[in-house]
Design brief:
Shape: extended
Structural class: mainly alpha
Radius of gyration: 14 Å
Protein name: Ribbon-helix-helix protein, CopG family
Strand order of the largest sheet: 1-2
Number of helices: 2
Strand content: 5-15%
Distance between the termini: 30 Å
Largest sheet: 2 strands, antiparallel
Number of strands: 2
Oligomer: single chain
Order of helices and strands: EEHH
Helix content: 40-55%
């Protein structure tokens, strides 16, 4: 499902996490006061790809 947003096009994805992974994400979000979506987006933006090396 692709939705249009004023800032960017949004693609909704579903991620299956192990219980420990989900708990770690929840704890991090509680400690930082940040939503999981923001945390996950930041982690994805930090990934290096071949496009980055051009």
């Amino acid at each position: 499902m692709i939705m249009t947003n004023k800032k960017w096009a949004v693609k909704r994805i579903t991620v299956n996490l192990a219980a420990q992974e989900a708990e770690k994400l929840e704890q991090y979000c509680q400690q930082t006061g940040r939503p999981a979506t923001d945390v996950i987006r930041e982690l994805i933006r930090g990934l290096s790809t071949a496009e980055d090396n051009k």
